[in-house]
Write a structure and sequence with these properties.
By secondary structure, the chain is α/β, with parallel strands linked by helices. It is built from five helices and eleven strands. The chain starts with a helix and ends with a strand.
Length: about 190
C-alpha cells in the first residue's frame, strides 16, 4: 500500500476516535496538557509564540492563548494565505473582533487588523496534527502548511504538539517532506 493511502487511513481512524471523545474528557485533558506546556522552559523563555486556534475535537488552545497573553508574550496566530498552501503568522492581541472565519471555519487574524510576524521571530510554535509518535513524528491534516512553515523557522525555535493520548501511535508512515516536532505533550 502506498504511503499516501496509509496516511489517509490512519488520519481517518484517529480523527474518528478523537471525535468520539466526550467534551468533558477533551476539556479536562486539554487543561492537563496546557499546564505541562506552560511549565516547559522553552515556553517560559519564549517571547513570540505561535499558537493555533483550535477547532472541532482538537486539543483546546484557549488556556494557552489566554496565559500567553497574560504573561506578556507576543501571540502569533496562523493565517492561510488566499490561493496558496502557505500560512503566515499574524500578531493577535486577544480581541475577538480581530478575527475572521477562515478556511474550514477556523478563526484566523484579519490582515487589516493585525501585523505580520516574520517566522524568524517565532521562538515557540504549537503545531497541530492528527497523530504523533513519542519521538515527534507527525501526521498532519494533509495540506503541508505546517511542514512548510516549520522548515523556515530559525534553528533555536522549539516546536511542540499537544495531543490526546489516543493520538499517540507507535509509527507514522513518513514522506521526505514530513517534519517532526521537538516534543509531544499528552495528558
Amino acid at each position: 500500500m502506498d504511503i499516501k493511502k496509509q496516511k489517509n487511513q490512519l488520519r481517518k481512524k484517529i480523527l474518528h476516535e478523537r471525535d468520539c471523545l466526550s467534551e468533558a474528557h477533551r476539556s479536562e485533558a486539554s487543561r492537563s496538557i496546557s499546564e505541562v506546556i506552560l511549565e516547559l522552559p522553552s515556553f517560559q523563555q519564549s517571547s513570540v509564540v505561535a499558537i493555533y486556534m483550535s477547532f472541532g475535537s482538537e486539543f483546546q488552545t484557549h488556556t494557552l492563548l489566554t496565559e500567553a497573553l497574560r504573561l506578556g508574550k507576543a501571540v502569533a496566530l496562523p493565517k492561510i494565505e488566499s490561493g496558496s498552501r502557505v500560512i503566515s503568522f499574524r500578531r493577535w492581541s486577544g480581541k475577538a473582533e480581530e478575527l475572521l472565519e477562515g478556511r474550514w471555519g477556523i478563526r484566523e487574524p484579519d490582515p487589516a487588523r493585525s501585523e505580520l510576524v516574520e517566522l524568524r521571530y517565532i521562538d515557540f510554535i504549537l503545531v497541530p496534527g492528527v497523530a504523533f509518535t513519542d519521538e515527534g513524528s507527525r501526521l498532519g491534516y494533509g495540506g503541508g502548511y505546517y511542514d512548510s512553515a516549520m522548515s523556515r523557522l530559525p534553528e533555536p525555535s522549539v516546536s511542540v504538539a499537544a495531543a490526546f493520548s489516543l493520538q499517540i501511535v507507535p509509527e507514522i508512515p513518513l514522506e521526505d517532506h514530513d517534519l517532526s516536532v521537538h516534543s509531544v505533550i499528552s495528558e
